[in-house]
From TrEMBL:
It is an enzyme of class 1 (oxidoreductase). Keywords: Oxidoreductase. It holds the Pfam family ADH_N. The lineage of its organism: Bacteria, Pseudomonadati, Pseudomonadota, Gammaproteobacteria, Alteromonadales. InterPro entries: ADH-like_C, ADH-like_N, ER, GroES-like_sf, NAD(P)-bd_dom_sf, Zn-ADH-like_protein. Residues 10-322 form the Enoyl reductase (ER) domain. Gene3D superfamilies: Medium-chain alcohol dehydrogenases, catalytic domain (3.90.180.10), NAD(P)-binding Rossmann-like Domain (3.40.50.720). Its EC number is 1.6.5.5. GO terms for molecular function: quinone reductase (NADPH) activity. It comes from the Bacteria. This is NADPH2:quinone reductase.
Length: 324
C-alpha cells in the first residue's frame, strides 16, 4: 500500500510518500480500507518530535480515518467486512489501509460523507470529552473558546451551544470570527485588535468565565487565566500558538478555579466505553444538525505535507482531510 512515512523527527518536508506492507487483522482488530483521513495539529507536532507520543521509526502518522472494513480478526463478532466505519487509529491514518482495535471502530450512517466522517473524530471528540467529562459544563454557563475557527475550536463552539452554554469566540481575524458566529458563537472577540483580558471582563459582566477551552497558549492563555470566574474550569487543550505557558498557581488559589488537562488520546485508552458513548452521542447530534464538520479542503494523500503546513500555519478554517 501507499503511505506517508516518517523516518526521522524532522520538518514535515522530510515525510515520504512510499510503499509500505499491507496491515493484517490481528486478534481483536480489523483492517480498514481508508477513504478519507483527518489532518490534525498534533500530527504536525508528532513528526517533528514535539508531541508527547514518540513512536519508533518508521511510522505512519494520522489518527483518524473513515473507510470500509476489508478484514476482520478473531474475537470481533460485531463487525463485518464491507461495513462503513470511522476509526481512531492513533497512528497509521495517512495510508491506504490501517489496522485498528475493534474497540476504536464505530459504524457510521450513509448520510455522513467520508471526509466529514474522518474529520469528526479527533476535533469534535476532543471538544466533547473536554466539555462533558472534564468541565462538566452546564446549561447557562459561559464558555470561552480560543482559536475558535480552527478544527477543535470550532467543534467546541458547536458542542458548547448544543450543551446549552453561552459561547464567547476568541479569534485573531474578523474572517475567523465570522465563521465562529456562523457556527453558533454568541459573543465575538478579536484579540489582535482588543485587550483580551478587558474584553473578557466586559463580555462576562465582570464575573469571569465559567469554562475556558484554551488551545492557543502563550499570551492568550495568560489572559484567560486572569479572566476566570469562581469555580471556573480552565481547560488546557493545546498550544497552537507555539508557546507553552508557565502558570502562576496562586491565581487558581486566589480566584478559586481549576486548571484541567485535556488529553483525549489517553482518555480513549483509559475509558474506551465512555469514548464509544461519546461518539454515539456526537453522531446523533450530527444527524440532528446540532454539530457539523467544516472541511476547509481535501487533498490527495501524496500532498499530506501541504495539508500539514496549512494546519501548522493556522490557516485552516475547520478541518483538512486527505484522500488516498
Amino acid at each position: 500500500m501507499k503511505a506517508i512515512v516518517c523516518n526521522e523527527f524532522a520538518s514535515v518536508d522530510n515525510l515520504r510518500y512510499q510503499d509500505m506492507p499491507d496491515p493484517k487483522a490481528a486478534k481483536g482488530h480489523v483492517v480498514v480500507d481508508i477513504k478519507a483521513s483527518g489532518v490534525n495539529f498534533p500530527d504536525g507536532l508528532l513528526v517533528q518530535g514535539l508531541y508527547q507520543l514518540k513512536p519508533d521509526f518508521p511510522f505512519i502518522p494520522g489518527g483518524e480515518v473513515a473507510g470500509v472494513i476489508s478484514e476482520v480478526g478473531e474475537d470481533v463478532p460485531h463487525l463485518k467486512v464491507g461495513r462503513r466505519v470511522i476509526a481512531l487509529c492513533m497512528l497509521g491514518g495517512y495510508a491506504e489501509k490501517v489496522a485498528v482495535p475493534a474497540t476504536h471502530v464505530l459504524p457510521i450512517p450513509d448520510e455522513i460523507p467520508d471526509e466529514e466522517a474522518a474529520a469528526l473524530v479527533t476535533a469534535h471528540a476532543t471538544a466533547h470529552h473536554a466539555l462533558k467529562q472534564r468541565a462538566n459544563i452546564q446549561p447557562g454557563e459561559t464558555l470561552v473558546v480560543t482559536g475558535a475557527a480552527g478544527g477543535t475550536g470550532l467543534a467546541a463552539v458547536q458542542i458548547g451551544k448544543a450543551m446549552g452554554a453561552k459561547v464567547i469566540a476568541v479569534c485573531s481575524t474578523q474572517e475567523k470570527l465570522d465563521i465562529a458566529k456562523q457556527n453558533g458563537a454568541d459573543v465575538l472577540i478579536n484579540y489582535s485588535e482588543n485587550d483580551l483580558k478587558t474584553a473578557l471582563k466586559e463580555a462576562t459582566n465582570g464575573k469571569g468565565a465559567d469554562v475556558v477551552y484554551e488551545c492557543v497558549g502563550g499570551d492568550t492563555f495568560h489572559a484567560c487565566s486572569r479572566s476566570m470566574g469562581w469555580n471556573g474550569r480552565l481547560l488546557v487543550v493545546g498550544f497552537a500558538g507555539g508557546t507553552i505557558p508557565e502558570f502562576p498557581v496562586n491565581l487558581a488559589l486566589v480566584k478559586g478555579y481549576s486548571v484541567i488537562g485535556v488529553f483525549w488520546g489517553s482518555f480513549t485508552q483509559h475509558q474506551p466505553k465512555d469514548f464509544q458513548d461519546n461518539m454515539k452521542e456526537l453522531l446523533t447530534w450530527y444527524l440532528q444538525g446540532k454539530v457539523k464538520v467544516i472541511v476547509d479542503e481535501t487533498l490527495p494523500l501524496e500532498q499530506a505535507k501541504d495539508a500539514l503546513k496549512k494546519v501548522l500555519g493556522r490557516k485552516v478554517k475547520g478541518k483538512m482531510a486527505l484522500r488516498p
